[in-house]
């Protein structure tokens, strides 16, 4: 069965509408990349479309000098939100995270916003992590569920695992990585499996028991088409988010909501 994410998007749209009424001006998002290719290109293009839909001023900046560019927009009063695409080519992403202004950090990648998530304060958390959590909250009661998160990246796997463990959701989470042994044993023993690895069609029924809720975060471009990390056959036995039309479509809506949030906070953390 395919999981329908439209109700989640509707809720976010409602939040954005309330913010817009409060704000009374167009907020502005700057998306910066030093490697405008592949999944980054796909995402920035879809950001452009969605920014227009939500009436957000939007600009893509391609640069080889991330640090100077970020410093400039950190100070620019006309810019409410700054997004920097991963992976970065010219410097390590942590250098970006260290200098980005937390008040404009609409993807929650700075140590300040990451740390707040550890405290259970989820104001700016990585949009994809929030997207997966919002979809799950819509589909089922999370309390005491056993969850396997495959992938441990700083913008997806790790913050997502923390959010699911935070008080109120109370899941028990395993975070799996490329060195994990007996992966299939762990995933088969889970109620919920979240796949965020970037390998097309990698997870099939060998990893899952029937009836598992599966969240497919993967965005891979195969023969020019968006393809997830979960194989199509899984849909017959499990509830699974489609690609496209799943996690990715919620992610961009959350990013836009965060731009409104940052604008309303007016530069304060
Ligand atoms: N839908 C959306 O909105 C978004 C989608 N994405 C997509 O999600 C996917 C993951 O993104 P991201 O987290 O940024 O990617 P990264 O490349 O940063 O991280 C991938 C993670 O997957 C792990 N991994 C890779 N292969 C395996 C394997 N065979 N078994 C177990 N773990 C494995 C890696 O392990 P190790 O650490 O050991 O190397 C790593 O932790 C990509 O396809 C990306 O395009 C990303 C962001 C948003
Ligand atoms: N700092 C950072 N954060 C990211 O979240 C991030 C990143 N870097 N680098 C690249 C990957 C890839 N990624 C995509 C998300 C959505 C679509 C996409 O196409 N979305 C469509 C729909 C897709 C769908 O429906 O599933 C849309 O928004 O309309 C593509 C790619 C984000 N990433």
UniProtKB/TrEMBL annotation:
SUPFAM superfamilies assigned: Aminoacid dehydrogenase-like, N-terminal domain, NAD(P)-binding Rossmann-fold domains
Pathway: One-carbon metabolism; tetrahydrofolate interconversion
InterPro entries: Aminoacid_DH-like_N_sf, NAD(P)-bd_dom_sf, THF_DH/CycHdrlase, THF_DH/CycHdrlase_cat_dom, THF_DH/CycHdrlase_NAD-bd_dom
Described function: Catalyzes the oxidation of 5,10-methylenetetrahydrofolate to 5,10-methenyltetrahydrofolate and then the hydrolysis of 5,10-methenyltetrahydrofolate to 10-formyltetrahydrofolate.
Assembly, per entry: Homodimer.
Chain sites annotated for binding NADP(+): 151-153, 219
Cellular component GO terms held in the UniProt record: cytosol
Keyword annotations of the record: Amino-acid biosynthesis, Histidine biosynthesis, Hydrolase, Methionine biosynthesis, Multifunctional enzyme, NADP, One-carbon metabolism, Oxidoreductase, Purine biosynthesis
Record family assignment: Belongs to the tetrahydrofolate dehydrogenase/cyclohydrolase family.
Annotated ranges, domain Tetrahydrofolate dehydrogenase/cyclohydrolase NAD(P)-binding: 126-263
Protein name, UniProt field: Bifunctional protein FolD
Gene: folD_1
């Amino acid at each position: 069965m395919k999981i329908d994410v439209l109700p989640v998007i509707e809720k976010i749209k409602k939040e954005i509408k309330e913010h817009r009424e409060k704000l009374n001006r167009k907020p502005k998002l700057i998306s910066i990349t030093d490697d405008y290719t592949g999944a980054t290109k796909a995402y920035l293009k879809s950001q452009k479309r969605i920014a227009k839909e939500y009436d957000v001023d939007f600009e893509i900046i391609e640069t080889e000098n991330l640090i100077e560019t970020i410093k400039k927009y950190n100070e620019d009063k006309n810019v409410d939100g700054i997004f920097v695409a991963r992976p970065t080519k010219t410097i390590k992403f942590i250098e970006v995270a260290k200098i980005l202004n937390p008040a404009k950090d609409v993807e929650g990648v700075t140590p300040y916003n990451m740390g707040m998530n550890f405290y259970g304060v989820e104001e700016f958390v990585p949009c994809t992590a929030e997207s997966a959590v919002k979809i799950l909250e819509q589909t089922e009661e999370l309390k005491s569920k056993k969850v396997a998160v495959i992938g441990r990246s700083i913008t997806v796997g790790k913050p997502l695992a923390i959010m699911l463990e935070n008080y109120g959701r109370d899941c028990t989470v395993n975070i799996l990585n490329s060195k994990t042994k007996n992966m299939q044993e762990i995933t088969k023993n889970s109620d919920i499996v979240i796949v965020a690895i970037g390998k097309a069609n990698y997870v099939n029924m060998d990893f899952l028991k029937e009836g598992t809720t599966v969240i497919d975060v993967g965005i891979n471009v195969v023969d020019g088409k968006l393809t997830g990390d979960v194989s199509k056959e899984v849909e017959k036995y499990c509830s699974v988010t489609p690609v496209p039309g799943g996690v990715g479509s919620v992610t961009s809506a959350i990013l836009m909501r965060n731009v409104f949030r940052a604008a309303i906070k007016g530069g304060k953390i």
